Amino acid sequence: MLEAQNIVKSYNNIQVLRGISLQVSQGEFISIVGASGAGKSTLLHILSTIDKPDSGIISYHSENVVTYSAKKLAEFRNKHIGFVFQFHNLFPEFSALENICIPAYIGNAPQKQTEAKAMELLEILKLTHRAHHKPGQLSGGEQQRVAVARALINNPKIVYADEPSGNLDAANAEDLHRLFFDLRKQMGQTFIVVTHSDTFANMADKKYVIKEGIIA
Ligand code: ADP
Predict the structure, then answer these.
(1) CB–CB of 47/58 below 8 Å?
(2) Distance between CA atoms of 122 and 179, rounded to whole angstroms?
(3) Taking 90 as the threshold, does the pLDDT of residue 130 lie above it?
(4) Which ligand 1 atom minimizes the distance to the CA of 210?
(5) What is the rounded CA–CA span in Å between residue 123 and residue 119?
(6) Cα(21) to centroid of ligand 1, in Å?
């Protein structure tokens, strides 16, 4: 479903990615590991179309998205891609339910249907009792599960996560790791996850080690 060909990216004349190629199939679970500064987040941002490469091709189902306009890319991301970050980036003034619904509203989805879907996700994530709580009233693990539900609300084909458990204690991190694999099983989503956790990385179908801007 996703193919990257010879991705190159520099910042300030320093080549951060030096020709990365990879292929990801539908439903695959990919982990990306490597030392700090190796280029993992840069690669994730480029694969997920948040950032553009200097050269190279990113194709989803054989369509090169690098050439898309900003508007077309924003629509593509909203429809097909879910994101989970290290810091959940939930809006503090909105409830868990409202936060989860936001990406659907951006895509003009109807409110009733979206809320029903969000409640389903909250149930899967064992958070039904927290639907109307604001992020400040939730634990770190609960906040991150709300962020996972938000990533899934538009039924994305692929979910990207950048250090999703980096800010959680060991027990919550382990729960979150298990949750990702449960979701893959239940929903068949493709996951690409940057992590410092060896245990999590080794649970993946494929592990890519990034070293000095290339796949080691
Ligand atoms: P990792 O995720 O493996 O820790 P990153 O992809 O975040 O590594 O960063 C790789 C290198 O690229 C680092 O040296 C970082 O300082 C640099 N870099 C990343 N993003 C930017 C940016 N927006 N501007 C300048 N340099 C950047």
Answers:
(1) yes
(2) 13
(3) yes
(4) 3
(5) 6
(6) 19
